[in-house]
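Input.
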Amino acid sequence: MGYIMSQESFDAMLDELSSTYRIWAPVNKVGEGRHTDTDVVRYDFVSWVKEIEWEKKSDYAFKEILTPLSQTLFFFTEDEVKEANRDVKDVLVFLRSCDMHALKRQDDIYLHNGKERDYFYDQMRQHVHFVLMGCSHSYQECFCVDMGSNQTKDGYVFSFDIIDGNIHSDVKDETFNNVFKKYAGQEKDVTPQYVTENDVHVTIPNEIPLSIYKSDMWDEYKTRCIGCGRCNFVCPTCTCYTMQDIYYTDNGKVGERRRVCASCMVDGYTNVAGGGQYRRDQGERMRFKVLHKVYDHRQRFGYDMCVGCGRCTNVCPEYISMAAAINKLNKTVEELKNE
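Output.
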């Protein structure tokens, strides 16, 4: 069922929904960008349509609502452990198709990658629902079409498009039909907008020989990449984290355990006891990241991890392009086949 309504009516509907849900959407933060007097688009809670950044691609992904940068899991004393309190109010998250596909990758890792579901992620996931934001055009550095993440047909409660000043919504969850009927001016079949063509293209190899691990194609990243980890923190599919124990007392028996987002591109991430280090330079770390995004995840779940949002390329201070790295990988694989 689809609906068309004015922005004023949609605002009134959001106001009613806010009694049940928190609304989490991309917001343009004026003057809060990486450089002086630049803006940044990142997620925050909103109340009205005009607060939602509709025209620009968000610089940061939606995932912090499910995997906060720092999350206290539990508190401990010498005698007991207490799970940290959580806000149990449901959340509506506005995101684009590539991020809807990224959500599936997040669920893969936290819920379906072992015998047990991640308890803390699972608890939060049950309270988060998704609103699909349509894409009327491609954005800089996007290659979602080649990654198959340009269109989403399910998984969202309703869609959100602004066309000729009005809100067009395709309602998938029947529980929202009543509130839409209350505020919508028109019922009409609605198909969320989606991108059919990108300026950036990638070719992904189907099979990758083991010799790629010794290839010199990774050498350029030894000097180009500075190991800042920005690519991981903006990526909607990166899931790596580390654990930190924070002690309140000198005896180390009272404190809290936190799960903190981590980066496979940062020095020290692969350090192990005894002084071992699995990936010592940025070339090896770039190799791990690229192969994980376009090969390893596919071997485990049947499709690639990267969704082609292009955020890692946009944020990289050294202008390292993920699309270029994937195409370089494909070219190198073809050369190795012909040797």
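The mean pLDDT is 95.
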